[in-house]
C-alpha cells in the first residue's frame, strides 16, 4: 500500500517499483499516458517474474490526504480498509470447511510518503503513522529526493528518524521482532542508515551511455532512478520485493493479524447474538432421550 499527501508521486513510484527491470516484459503500461490523480482506494494485481519464479503482488494505491480544511481522523478510511482485509481472512480461517489456501488480501506493507521539506514532519504525518503503525508494517519513504542536496537529504533522514523515535512510532523492521543477533545486526544497519529511503520515481525512459534507463530529465542531466549514486530506489525495491518480503508477511500474520484476531474472538468475533464464529445461526441440538431401564 502507498500512502501520503497529494502530489508526492505515489502512483508514479508504484509504477516504477513494479514495472522496472524486474517486470517490464509483463507490463502493458504505456509510459506516454499521464497518471491520473488517485481519488479512491484501488487494488491492482500484478505478476512479477525473476529467475523463472513468478510472484503475484497486489498494489494498493490510495488517495492523497491533507488537502482538506478539516483533516481530523483522515486515517480512519485506511485503517478501516486494512482491518476489513483481516476480517476477510479471519472469516475464512474459522470456517469449518475452509479452503486449503485462504485468499490473502491482507496489507503486508505500507509505504508512507514524506514530503522532502528538509524540515520537521507535519503533525498530520506523525498522527497518521502513529495510528497506522499499530495495524500494518510502515516503511517511511522520502519522496522526490532529487529536490534536496546530499547534505540536506542526510540531515533530513536523521531528523525524521529522531522524530519517529520521540513520538513512539515503530516503523518496519521493528526492533522487538528481530529474532536473532544476525537479524538484529542487519536490521539495525537498515534502521540507522537507510531509513527513511530517499527515492525518485519516474515513468519515462532516457538514453544514458547507450542504455535505456528510467529517469528524470533536468537542465543539468538525467537523474537515474535505479542508480544508487542518485537515489535509494533500488534499495527500496530490493528491500520490499527480495530481502524482506517473507518477513513482512510473517510479521503481518504473527503480530498485526494475531492482534486483530485475538481482539475479535475475545469480543465473540463481533457477531450478533445467536451466531457462531462462522457467522451462521446454529440450529438447536435435538434432545437425546435417556435410555429406560429394562
Automatic annotation (TrEMBL):
Matches recorded under SUPFAM superfamilies: P-loop containing nucleoside triphosphate hydrolases (SSF52540)
List the GO terms this entry assigns under cellular component, sorted alphabetically.
cytoskeleton
Question: Does the keyword field hold Glycoprotein?
Answer: no
Tell me any Pfam family this protein matches: Septin
| Domain Septin-type G span(s) in chain numbering | 1-267
Any GO MF annotation of the entry: GTP binding
Alphabetically ordered keywords of this record: Cytoplasm, Cytoskeleton, GTP-binding, Nucleotide-binding
Q: Where in the cell is it found?
A: Cytoplasm, Cytoskeleton
Top-level taxon of the source organism: Eukaryota
Keyword Cytoplasm annotated: yes
Subunit: Septins polymerize into heterooligomeric protein complexes that form filaments, and can associate with cellular membranes, actin filaments and microtubules. GTPase activity is required for filament formation.
Task of the protein: Filament-forming cytoskeletal GTPase. May play a role in cytokinesis.
PANTHER family with a match to the protein in the record:
SEPTIN (PTHR18884)
Under what name is this protein listed? Neuronal-specific septin-3
Which organism does this sequence originate in? Answer: Monodon monoceros (Narwhal)
Q: Which gene does this sequence derive from? A: SEPTIN3
Amino acid at each position: 500500500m502507498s500512502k501520503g499527501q497529494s502530489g508526492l508521486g505515489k502512483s508514479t513510484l508504484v509504477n516504477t517499483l513494479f514495472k522496472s527491470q524486474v517486470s517490464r516484459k509483463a507490463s502493458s503500461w504505456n509510459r506516454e499516458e499521464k497518471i491520473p490523480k488517485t481519488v479512491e482506494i484501488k487494488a491492482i494485481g500484478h505478476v512479477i517474474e525473476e529467475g523463472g519464479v513468478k510472484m503475484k503482488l497486489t498494489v494498493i494505491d490510495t488517495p492523497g490526504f491533507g488537502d482538506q480544511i478539516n483533516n481530523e481522523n483522515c486515517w480512519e478510511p485506511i485503517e478501516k480498509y486494512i482491518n476489513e482485509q483481516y476480517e476477510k481472512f479471519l472469516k475464512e480461517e474459522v470456517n469449518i470447511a475452509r479452503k486449503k489456501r485462504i485468499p490473502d488480501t491482507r496489507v503486508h506493507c505500507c509505504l508512507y510518503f514524506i514530503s522532502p521539506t528538509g524540515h520537521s514532519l507535519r503533525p498530520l504525518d506523525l498522527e497518521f503513522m502513529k495510528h497506522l503503525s499499530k495495524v500494518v508494517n510502515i516503511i517511511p519513504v522520502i519522496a522526490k529526493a532529487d529536490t534536496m542536496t546530499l547534505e540536506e537529504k542526510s540531515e533530513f533522514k536523521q531528523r525524521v528518524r529522531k522524530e519517529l523515535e520521540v513520538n513512539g512510532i515503530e516503523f518496519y523492521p521493528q526492533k522487538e521482532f528481530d529474532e536473532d543477533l544476525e537479524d538484529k545486526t542487519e536490521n539495525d544497519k537498515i534502521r540507522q542508515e537507510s531509513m527513511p529511503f530517499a527515492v525518485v520515481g519516474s515513468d519515462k525512459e532516457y538514453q544514458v551511455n547507450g542504455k535505456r534507463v528510467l529517469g528524470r530529465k533536468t537542465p543539468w542531466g538525467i537523474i537515474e532512478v535505479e542508480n544508487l549514486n542518485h537515489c535509494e530506489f533500488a534499495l527500496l525495491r530490493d528491500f520490499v520485493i527480495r530481502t524482506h518480503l517473507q518477513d513482512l508477511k510473517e510479521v503481518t500474520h504473527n503480530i498485526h493479524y494475531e492482534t486483530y484476531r485475538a481482539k475479535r474472538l475475545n469480543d465473540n468475533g463481533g457477531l450478533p447474538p445467536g451466531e457462531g464464529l462462522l457467522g451462521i445461526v446454529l440450529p438447536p441440538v435435538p434432545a437425546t432421550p435417556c435410555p429406560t431401564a429394562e
